[in-house]
Amino acid sequence: MKICNTEIMKKIKLLEQQKNEVEAEEMRIYAVTYQTEKDKFDNGYNFASTRKKIDEINAEVRKYKRLLNYSNATTTIAEFDMTLGECLVYMAQLNNQLYTLRRLAQQEPITRRSTVNGVIEYTALNYDIKECQAKLQWVQETIAALQVAIDRTNLTNMIEVD
């Protein structure tokens, strides 16, 4: 059966959610509190079967993540001449730049302030604000195009799943 990258990501998310539910249930019932031996009851908790269920879910998650990682390492996004994995790294790098560029683009070219002693100090930027704003615009447009390319690839790239 073939499924796309997005379906694999959804399966991983559902499996992780399922595992969290099993673990939450375990934390809720792993012990019983009672006052006398005849008040003690069996709530159905079984350590071995719970661990087995979690191990099975983990194995399935590893299988899907291996398939997704392989796809990320081998699927090329032509518009960017990079693999899907490289594009994901590039997206993170661009998002980091975006934060810095937004901050730099909002600065005033020259500011002045008075010190506690009444001396006036000036602060001037060491860069061209228009150049910074142009770079910011380019990064924003590149992020948008990259996200569309990644989403398209994740929806159209099919992977054989056992």
Give me a quick take on this structure:
With 162 residues, this protein is α+β, with helices and mostly antiparallel strands. It is built from four helices and six strands. Helix content is 64%, strand content 12%.
Written account of the structure:
The chain is an alpha+beta fold and 162 residues long. Helix content is 64%, strand content 12%. The protein contains 4 helices and 6 strands. The strands form 3 sheets. Strands 1-6 form a two-stranded antiparallel sheet. It has a two-stranded antiparallel ribbon with strand order 2-3. The protein has a two-stranded antiparallel sheet with strand order 4-5. It is flat, with a radius of gyration of 27 Å.
Topology as a string of helices (H) and strands (E)? EHHEEHEEHE
Q: Please report the total strand number as a whole number.
A: 6
Which stretches of 5+ consecutive residues score pLDDT under 50? Answer: none
Question: Strand content of the residues, in percent?
Answer: 5-15%
What overall form do the CA principal axes indicate?
Answer: flat
Keyphrases for this structure?
162 residues; alpha+beta; two-stranded antiparallel ribbon; two-stranded antiparallel sheet; 4 helices; flat
Layout of helices and strands, plus pairs?
Blueprint: E1 2-4, H1 5-29, H2 47-74, E2 76-77, E3 82-83, H3 84-105, E4 110-114, E5 120-124, H4 129-156, E6 158-160
Antiparallel strand pairs: 1-6, 2-3, 4-5
Helix pairs in contact: 1-2, 3-4
